[in-house]
Specification:
Number of helices: 10
CATH class of the largest domain: Alpha Beta
Helix content: 25-40%
Strand content: 15-25%
Number of domains: 2
Shape: globular
Largest sheet: 8 strands, mixed
Distance between the termini: 54 Å
CATH topology of the largest domain: Rossmann fold
């Protein structure tokens, strides 16, 4: 009897150890599956909080496409060849410089291969803000460090979005280039008409402000009307830095404003889905959907004072923006 009891207790301990191991492995797998593309930034902007809070409410991008308008892309990267729930991550591609469908990098291009990571990646456990969205990759110029002269091909890329946004469910556009200058007023070019029409079509368009620490202006094309200008605060710290000016619409935690803008684009996708799910009456917030979404992000964001410009800016808080629309589940 003593021998039987001893064997029983040994087996019980071993079973407990096995169950504990399984539990730890399960926790590890869940943690890995929800690994943010930019952990500190996502935590700061309360994106990871929003993932947990609305896990059973939102799809985090399904049915929406983000257009990445930049200097091309290495389309063989596994992040962009991935198939998510039977859907290709890259839905469509276009090159408005050459007029074909191959957006590969040419010349000095390099940036567009990675700019979609913070907003959209869903590969090998890494997740962007709207990780279940699809992307449209558009090469609209040779290099993301651009010149106003690139407005011709950039306008052609935006025109393609205008003509195809309904077909490919493009709700959001990340215009990623910067000309690295401090513009304190708009620079009229042929992209302006495209930006106006996209805004009227309820398509969100935003661009990074630039990364030089300018306090008297921001890069083109973020300087333009109907293009939201997205600046930055330091990661893990509400301190405005990099390029800013009165035109800045929102600041986001990031190491560079291109990442700030990418995160903001992902947030816009989540907020649009929330508005649709809740049948939220956005017309009280703005004359069109993009302006209403920005207004929600601003009013629910955290006010950050900037002594260098003697201005205050609103820092993105994704959890608060979604709570405003959906309430707390």
């Amino acid at each position: 009897m003593k021998l039987a009891n001893g064997i029983y207790h040994v087996l019980q301990r071993r079973l407990s150890a096995i169950l504990l191991t399984i539990a730890l492995l399960s926790t590890s797998i869940i943690s890995h599956a929800e690994d943010p593309a930019e952990r500190v930034e996502f935590t700061h902007a309360r994106i990871t909080d929003a993932w947990k809070t609305y896990a059973n409410v939102l799809t985090f991008g399904k049915g929406q496409t983000l257009a990445l308008v930049d200097d091309g892309c290495n389309m063989s990267m596994p992040e962009w060849t991935a198939i998510i729930d039977g859907q290709p991550k890259v839905l469509v591609s276009y090159d408005s410089v050459d007029g074909d469908n191959n957006p590969k990098h040419e010349g000095k291009g390099y940036h567009g291969s990675t700019i979609g990571i913070p907003s959209s990646v869903n590969y090998n456990g890494k997740r962007g803000v709207a990780y279940n969205d699809q992307v449209a990759v558009i090469r609209a110029l040779e290099c993301c460090h651009c010149n106003v002269k690139d407005s011709t091909t950039l306008a052609a890329g935006l025109q393609w979005v205008l003509e195809n946004h309904k077909k490919y469910r493009i709700t959001t556009v990340n215009v990623a280039p910067v000309d690295d200058l401090a513009h304190d007023k708009p620079v009229p070019t042929e992209i302006d008409d495209k930006l106006t029409k996209l805004r009227e079509s309820n398509v969100w368009v935003s661009a990074p402000t630039g990364n030089h620490g300018f306090t008297n202006g921001i890069s083109w094309p973020s300087s333009q009307p109907n293009c939201f200008a997205i600046g930055a605060v330091k990661t893990g710290k509400d301190e405005v830095y990099l390029d800013r000016h009165a035109k800045v619409d929102l600041v986001v935690p990031a190491a560079a404003t291109s990442s700030s803008n990418a995160i903001a684009c992902g947030a816009a996708i989540l907020l649009r889905e929330a508005i649709e799910k809740a049948n939220y009456d956005w017309k009280a917030d703005g004359k069109n959907l993009p302006e209403a979404m920005l207004a929600i992000m601003q009013k629910t964001g955290k006010k950050v004072e900037d002594p260098a410009t003697n201005r205050s800016y609103q820092r993105l808080d994704v959890q608060a923006a979604l709570e405003h629309v959906l309430g707390k589940p």
